[in-house]
Design brief:
CATH class of the largest domain: Mainly Beta
Structural class: mainly beta
Number of helices: 2
């Protein structure tokens, strides 16, 4: 069972805006639900940005042509830096960029090759997508009684840094490999510590009849400094899960182990899995802690969620709170 902290922000360019629907907060009775898992293909990521060579200006002595990257939809400065093996600071200095969030599609960036890439800075935005930085696991698809299609899965933070603003892009393909529909989904937790995982879900209201395979790629993400920015991880104790009629109930106790900070605005995210580790459902829920959960304090919680495909084989819970003023 995964127990961890998390909180989400949103920053970065993105060029894909398709149908995205939040996870339902209430369950559908079993008598009305005919969720059927579809075959799952391995998730994949696309290639990092490729350089565009600029035409060099003739000079008296031969010089190497500078490497220039033309900004595309979804590109970020951190992603471009990682793709070419240079630092964000070097990119900013070489191109006179004061605000890395104000990149423009079609803008040309000179790549200062030959510089080493340092450790990521707080607020550094990751590539679009980012091979080997995030993991995608547990992807599954479920048809609904009204003909729509749920895509569920989770993002695993395989970096050494806490992440936020994590978004994935899902593409469905027909048997010939042609994309037929796509959309974006945001991870359900606002922050994602190293080695932790957060679920995501996207509902395709009118899925194609000839859907044959899929691709899930990380669209963007952002490094954050530490938890000291006002967000406090909570420990889940005595967590238990069991079917209650057509739904799945998760209960337990949240413990504030921080020695000095009380917390408010407590959020719990529960995820269910089938026997093969595929995500079958998840839910976010605010927990009432009155005027705040004091240091060392505990509060019970319970939540109900819909799990597709029958009784879950396993579940996980993560929770966090905001530092009380």
């Amino acid at each position: 069972m995964v127990v961890s902290a998390a909180l989400l922000l949103a920053l970065a360019l993105t060029g894909c805006e398709q149908v995205t629907t939040p996870v339902p907060a209430t369950a559908t009775p079993a008598s009305q639900r005919t969720s059927t898992p579809l075959p799952v293909q391995p998730a994949a990521t696309t290639s990092p940005p490729q350089p565009v060579l600029a035409t060099p200006t003739p000079t008296a002595s031969p010089t190497a042509a500078p490497v220039v990257h033309v900004i595309q939809a979804g590109d970020t400065l951190g992603g471009i830096a990682a793709a070419y093996g240079v630092s964000v600071q070097a990119l900013q200095e070489a191109n006179g960029i004061e605000n890395p969030l104000l990149l423009q599609i079609g803008q040309e960036l000179v790549i200062p090759l030959g510089q080493e890439t340092g450790a990521p800075e707080p607020g550094m935005i990751l590539p679009t997508p980012t091979p080997l930085i995030f993991g995608i696991r547990g992807v599954s698809f479920y048809e609904t009684p009204v003909g729509s299609l749920w895509c569920l899965g989770e993002v695993v933070n395989t970096t050494l840094y806490t992440l936020t603003n994590v978004v994935v892009h899902v593409t469905l393909y027909d048997p010939s490999g042609t994309p037929v529909i796509e959309g974006d989904a945001t991870a359900a937790t606002d922050i994602l510590p190293p080695a932790e995982r957060a679920p995501f879900g996207i509902l395709f209201i009118a899925p194609p009849d000839n859907f044959a395979s899929h691709q899930v790629a990380v669209l963007r993400g952002e490094f954050v400094a530490e938890f000291t920015a006002g967000y406090v991880p909570l420990t889940v104790e005595e967590g238990q899960g069991a079917p209650i009629g057509p739904q799945f109930q998760v209960v337990g106790t949240l413990h504030n182990g921080d020695p000095t900070r009380a917390v408010t605005d407590v959020l719990v995210v529960a995820t269910t899995y089938d026997g093969e580790g595929r995500v079958t459902g998840f839910r976010q829920q605010q927990i009432d802690v009155g005027e705040g959960l004091e240091p060392g304090g505990s509060v019970p919680f319970q939540m109900l969620l819909t799990a597709h495909g029958g009784v879950p084989a396993d579940f996980s819970v993560i929770a966090f709170g905001h530092e009380a003023p």
